[in-house]
């Protein structure tokens, strides 16, 4: 996947779900709701490494991402960073502190220049009063993140590392992308960051990526992993999860096949 970049900011007034991603908070809103939400603030550009939210801060504003990715992180007492997840175009950030008035539970840091709309809690509250259906979508987003956390804990106990890494690559490639599906995907994360998200050691993830690279499933570069063909990645996931009766090792096409017949 190409993570949505700031180039997509020019389409912020679009009405189609695809421009925001149908599974994102903004993408799920109806056109009138989406226009009203985006009118609550003006997008501002933030450089690489900017802290959009700080853990422990008691602010209650929410953010609408016009591009991504951004990383959600916490730091332990030794100062080591732990990557909790990624967010992209169309996602809402800061909703938990808005809802419960508690300090921010994690920090959010940009991985590329991104455009963000900041909405003060008072204006967001009035917006929810005027468009009560949006509150249902807000609750759904929170619930899905809780379910994702439960699912991750289950996969940690039930799946081997290769399967977890493949699921992670598929999620990052398919789920964080706005617009029409693309043949390939570039995931701008280090192998260490992928290991954190997969709940695995960096050595184990490096070994798995070497195998995937030899099979033509991925290409690795400095601070990024490329998936040349999303269909091949889906076939690999089916193989590792036992869903394919043919257990011969799937090999990647390098992004050269259309897969119309597969």
Model description:
Helix content is 39%, strand content 17%. It has two domains: 151 residues, Jelly Rolls (Sandwich), CATH 2.60.120.10; 81 residues, Arc Repressor Mutant, subunit A. α4 crosses α5 and α7 packs across α8. The chain has a four-stranded antiparallel sheet. A four-stranded antiparallel sheet has the order 2-7-4-5. It starts with 24 loop residues before the first helix and ends in a 22-residue tail after the last helix. A hairpin with a 2-residue loop joins β10 and β11. It has nine helices and eleven strands.
Give keywords.
globular, Arc Repressor Mutant, subunit A, about 40% helix, 4-stranded antiparallel β-sheet, about 260 residues, disordered N terminus, 9 helices, Jelly Rolls, alpha+beta, 11 strands, 2 domains
Count of β-strands: 11
Give the DSSP E fraction (strand runs of 2 or more residues). 15-25%
Uncertain regions spanning at least 5 consecutive residues: 1-18, 176-181
Q: Output the structural class.
A: alpha+beta
- What's the CATH topology label of the largest domain? Jelly Rolls
Structural domain tally: 2
- Kindly report the spatial arrangement of strands forming the biggest sheet: 1-8-3-6
The oligomeric status of these chains comes to single chain
Helix content range of the residues, please?
25-40%
- Main sheet specs: 4 strands, antiparallel
CATH architectural grouping of the largest domain: Sandwich
| Gyration radius, in Å | 19 Å
Secondary-structure element string:
HHEEEEEEHEEHHHEHHEEH
């Amino acid at each position: 996947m190409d993570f949505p970049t700031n180039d997509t900011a020019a389409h912020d007034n679009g009405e189609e779900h695809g421009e925001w991603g149908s599974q994102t908070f903004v993408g799920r809103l109806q056109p009138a709701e989406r226009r009203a939400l985006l009118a609550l603030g003006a997008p501002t550009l933030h450089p690489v490494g900017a802290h959009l939210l700080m853990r422990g801060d008691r602010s209650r504003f929410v953010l609408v991402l016009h591009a991504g990715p951004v990383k959600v992180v916490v730091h332990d007492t030794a100062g080591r960073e732990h990557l909790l997840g990624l967010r992209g175009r169309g996602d809402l950030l800061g909703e938990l502190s808005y809802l419960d008035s508690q300090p921010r539970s994690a920090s959010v840091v940009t991985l590329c220049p991104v455009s963000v709309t900041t909405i003060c809690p008072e204006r967001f509250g009035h917006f929810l009063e005027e468009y009560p259906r949006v509150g249902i979508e807000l609750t759904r987003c929170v619930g899905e993140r809780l379910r994702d956390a439960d699912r991750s804990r289950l996969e940690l106990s039930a799946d081997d590392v290769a399967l977890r890494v493949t699921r992670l690559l598929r999620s990052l490639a398919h789920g964080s992308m706005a617009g029409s599906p693309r043949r390939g995907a570039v995931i701008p994360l280090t192998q260490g960051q992928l290991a954190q998200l997969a709940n695995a050691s960096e050595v184990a993830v490096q070994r798995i990526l070497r195998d995937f690279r030899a099979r033509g499933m991925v290409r690795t570069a400095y601070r990024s992993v490329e998936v040349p063909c999303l269909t091949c990645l889906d076939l690999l996931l089916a193989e590792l999860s036992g869903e394919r009766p043919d257990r011969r090792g799937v090999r990647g096409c390098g992004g050269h096949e259309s897969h119309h017949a597969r």
